Amino acid sequence: MQYSETIKTAENDFIHLTVNDNGTLVISDKQNGNVYFEMLTYFGRAALEDGGIHSSYSGYTSVRKFSFPEQTYFDIHKTAPCKVSRDLYAHFDMVNSVASRVTLMPNERALRVTALLSESHGESEVENILRFPTGADYPTVTANGEAYEINTPFTLSKGGSVTVMSENGSAFRISEVSEDVTVTVSEDGNIDIVYPLVTVNDRFYGEYSKSEYKFSYVLEPIDAN
Fold first, then answer.
1. 36-48, pLDDT tens digit by residue?
2. How far is it, in rounded angstroms, from Cα 166 to Cα 142?
3. Could you give the CA distance from residue 37 to residue 203 in angstroms, rounded to a whole number?
4. How far apart (Å, rounded) are the C-alpha atoms in residues 15 and 3?
5. pTM assigned to the model
6. pLDDT tens digits for range 36-80
7. Cα distance between residue 206 and residue 198, in whole Å
8. What is the DSSP string of 130-148?
9. End-to-end Cα separation, the chain, in angstroms
10. Is residue 94 a contact partner of residue 84, using CB atoms and an 8 Å limit?
11. CA 26 to CA 21: how far, in whole Å?
């Protein structure tokens, strides 16, 4: 086994992977030359009366690489304190911790990801979102054999997959999701996967609440048909 906290790249015959300092991924597909940037972006959105604040998990990030003959994986741990606005004078603190393991196998044109999201915060309902910018402009969207419109949320069932393809040659699939999730694909090809809403206790009248959410899935760069 080889271990490193400084080397943040790995590759096989199909994929070259780079882990950025902020924990996002650059996935280069050796089969067709497509490159996908800022994959695996996390952010939170609070469902408050004022709409909340779109807050990226951009705090402390650590990346550790483990290499074995049978696989290489990166453990990516992100911890970020965030503030969610209710009005001009008040906010509720949120502390988000995301631990992801991104695994590259020797003979797969895919990355296998497992994630553990831990939350501790005050009163709010928080959506936790995974974003995958595929670069597929105005893509066709299919999930489990059915077509969906862009910018329209739909439910992706456990074990299912979502595929985006566009005429510019970009194509990508997320498959083998471990839980039912809500998915939205934008006109510029962002695949947003929304974790279930988590309701937590009031900061001032109750205890801080902590919850955990486990999720796994497969990232697959594919050829556009």
1. 999 998 876 655 5
2. 12
3. 37
4. 20
5. 0.85
6. 999 998 876 655 555 554 455 556 789 999 999 999 999 999 876
7. 16
8. EEEE---SS-EEEETTEEE
9. 39
10. yes
11. 11
